[in-house]
């Protein structure tokens, strides 16, 4: 099981007019489609703890207050194949109960089904971290998994 959990189990993306975003326990990924031939010098990306601003060739594509806080120094962006900007934000709160329901405070919310799938995925990722000898990448989960699922930490080992 050398590949990361999200690579083995897939991601649960939330589509937007400019691309998509998805999350893991630790990170939020933002993929923005840009005009083919875009160069890095055309991109302005400002990442702060609770704010993001992205423009290409002076046109604002994404701007606003993030759903939750991130670690500013660990946020990165890359331009891939001169047509996709990938932004990676490191969550400050990295537990399964911290499932972002939207990318920004009042925009790009996941619909209820996608939000449910995101929460399931984060709960399984939490189980994977707590039980590294097992592979939860293909597991199904039902029942109470909201807020990260049941807490087994108080049980004796």
Secondary structure elements and their pairing?
Layout: H1 5-9, E1 14-16, E2 19-23, E3 27-33, E4 43-47, E5 51-56, E6 59-65, E7 76-80, E8 84-90, E9 102-104, E10 107-109, H2 112-130
Antiparallel strand pairs: 1-2, 2-3, 3-8, 4-5, 5-6, 7-8, 9-10
Short key terms for the protein model shown above:
3-stranded antiparallel sheet, 15% helix, NudC domain-containing protein 2, Immunoglobulin-like, HSP20-like_chaperone, NudC_fam, 157 residues, unfolded protein binding, alpha+beta
What is the global morphology?
Answer: elongated
Q: Helix- and strand-based class? A: alpha+beta
| Poorly predicted tracts of residues | none
Q: What's the CATH first level? A: Mainly Beta
Provide mean pLDDT, rounded: 87
- Percent of residues in helices: 10-25%
Radius of gyration: 17 Å
Distance between the termini: 23 Å
Domain CS: 14-104
Region (Disordered): 138-157
Protein name: NudC domain-containing protein 2
Pfam family, one: CS
Detailed description of the structure:
The chain is α+β, with helices and mostly antiparallel strands. It has one domain: Immunoglobulin-like, CATH 2.60.40. 15% of the residues lie in helices and 32% in strands. It has 2 helices and 10 strands, in the order H-E-E-E-E-E-E-E-E-E-E-H. It has helices at residues 5-9, 112-130; strands at 14-16, 19-23, 27-33, 43-47, 51-56, 59-65, 76-80, 84-90, 102-104, 107-109. The protein has a 5-stranded antiparallel β-sheet with strand order 1-2-3-8-7. It has a 3-stranded antiparallel β-sheet with strand order 4-5-6, with no helix packed on it. Strands 9-10 form a two-stranded antiparallel sheet. Strand 9 and strand 10 (107-109) form a beta hairpin. The longest helix has 19 residues, at 112-130. The radius of gyration is 17 Å and the shape is elongated. The chain starts with a helix and ends in a 27-residue tail after the last helix.
